[in-house]
Amino acid sequence: MQISKSLRRLIYWELGIPLALLSIGIYHGLMQTIYRSGVIHQSNFAHLDYYQGLTLHGVINAVVLTTFFAVAFGHATITFYLKKEPNKIVAWTSFWLMTIGTGLAAWAMLSGKASVLYTFYPPLKGHPFFYLGAALLIVGSWLPLFDWARMYVQWKKVNAEVKTPLAVLGTLVNFTIWFVCTLAVAYEVLVLLLPWAMGWTPTVNVTLARTLFWFFGHALVYFWLLPAYIMFYTMLPKLAGGKLFSDLAGRIALFLFLLFSVPVGVHHQFSDPSISKGIKLFQGLLTFGVAIPSFITAFTLAASLEYAGRKRGAKSLLGFFGKLPYLDPNRFLFAYLIAGLFLFIFGGLTGLVNASGQLNNVVHNTAWLPGHFHMTVAGPVFLAIIGMSTYLYSKTSGKRIFLPKVNVIIPYLWVIGILIFSTGMSWGGLIGEPRRTNLGLTYLNPKDPLFTPEWVPTTMLALAGGIIMFITGVLFFIVFFGTMLRKRVQEPILELPVSEVLHDEKRIPLFDQFKPWLVTMGLILVLAYTPALINAVKNTGPGAPRFTPDNPVPVTTENSVGKTVKNGSVNTSEITGKLVKK
Amino acid sequence: MDRSEKKVIIITGLVLSLFIFSILYARGKTNDLPECVPFDKTYTEPKVTKLDNKTYQVYAVAKMWQFEPSQIYILLGSEVDFFLTSKDVVHGFNISDKNVNMMAVYGNINKTTVKFDKPGVYKITCHEYCGVGHQTMQAEVIVNDPASK
After folding, report:
1. Which residues of A touch B100 (CB under 8 A)?
2. Highest-confidence segment of A140-149, A503-512, B33-42
3. What average pLDDT does the segment A400-404 reach?
4. Is A546 assigned a catalytic role?
5. Kindly report the CA angle at A432 between A430 and A435, in degrees rounded to 5?
6. Residue of chain A with shortest Cα separation from B95
7. pTM of this prediction?
8. Phi, psi (deg, nearest 5) at residue A391
9. Which parts of A407-457 are beta strand (E)?
10. From the candidate CATH numbers 3.40.1080.20, 1.20.210.10, 1.10.1200.10, 1.10.540.10, the one assigned to the domain spanning A5-550
């Protein structure tokens, strides 16, 4: 369909800004594998510190890129399926809020004033602009939801008996999850952290902040994932040359995500103090619940691909896998999606390990974790994002893809890189290699007393994977920005691949309305989170003052600077007397 | 409903119940997740207490960028209760070759119990980013050190 110049521009910017920033994110990804493997024994490289780079890597890749993309993709799906453009003012206000927020946070990180990693756990304090930027990015991403909901209600008035298009349902479910979960992080940032970072409130309850963060933090991963799921259900079967096996399965899966995405965050806190074992067990079980929609998806997609393969002439039991259009440059999106799905098999299975409290004791906060989530967020999510960005840009700009043959092999190169990287990380994690650590300075430095030779092969594998991923990332930038530099040769249109449905079940009202699901979602949330929040307040002691990453002595407020600092340093040196080191 | 659909639903139900039963059963037998201990100031001073030949209590305090006590000597076959807290930012507490994995949080007390059946040096590594010195933060549990006898 034809779309206005304003919407086209909005989509370009919302795809282009995070992808330009991604170059910083990917550079720091490579650098981390270099630091960690002990190739360099430095705390910084090219004036950027390891932990500063790690913060940039996490915030840009996992929050900025994913949020901007979800909004752009949401505009595209809603416009395409409801045949109506979103409100211009709302859409552009949302864009500017997100962009200004990103700018503020980027400044704080690049100037080294917020090396607090993307989880920004207090009492490590970042620059207030970091928190303010995060809040603006989030609030900006809320706005379109209200506009899309208005469009959906209008559409439903006219089409009461028509099934809501799956992609529209998916986008609305996704942003509802996002809105609910970000309320907690907005509270954490605006009420707990920002006044504390400014020095207006002296202390912060760390466990409460962590619990609120993970209320958001796990739902965040489904916010990343659902745009990819929308592509898997509504586009992949078409691209494969077949049909979606069941449309109802997709609806059930989406509503289950609505129920189970948020009340599972405590599984990130299995190792935390002050939260009782009962709540950890309950949310652990709910976490297994959130695996169900993913299993439904896996089987539905496998059936859809089998149908496509058989239509293309496959005969034997699993022969259909050989008949799919893996390397067709005209259907490059298929390559991106199928490669992501393949990685997600391992991402999902390692995720089930993390969800079980017992096994979590072995892997918590070790290199296993980045090993796991690079097969999810840097697997299906990342590949869907970059593949769809190229696709959407080329369609809405009317430009042909630059280097189409390179474009179609990018996802497979990425799979090779990730598999090597994640093997190294997972293996390292199982033998105690910590994540988020500049290993090259100590543990991977043969001259240091802490040198740990067992982690040499694991970090070397991660390095090899990292190099392949970096090269693949560069190839993607060449294709994407190369396409941008080309001339328009076609009519610019908004067009998405649309899968027909093999078993088109009749409309079941329960799976075509939000109310009962939203009520159930609220109930489970209250059940799962009330006790956790009570624990976080009741079992904890005094709140913590502010600390910067470079100083064991807390940041003090103006009046008491001299005294407190002195007391602090005296205490430290007394106790340090019996230090092991060296 | 289709007969094979029915079959699938029954089998799925059985597998799921077996799965959930196993989880609950295993949890009942051994639940080595950290215990929930309300905050108490006494745990914030680092010390090792030998209750008897087989039992120790360790009040471990994590701070930028060391653990206190930094070397913990214990006898073979002892059971050790670790009480963990932080003097400043969030730290991690991971004992190698043992299923001990806890977060050290300011104003919070974490607790777990673990038995050391083999002699040796067990490294305790901080696995949560805690500032510029994070990568130097390691301590040791030394089980049956011949020199200490």
Report:
1. 361
2. A140-149
3. 94
4. no
5. 100
6. A432
7. 0.92
8. -60, -50
9. none
10. 1.20.210.10
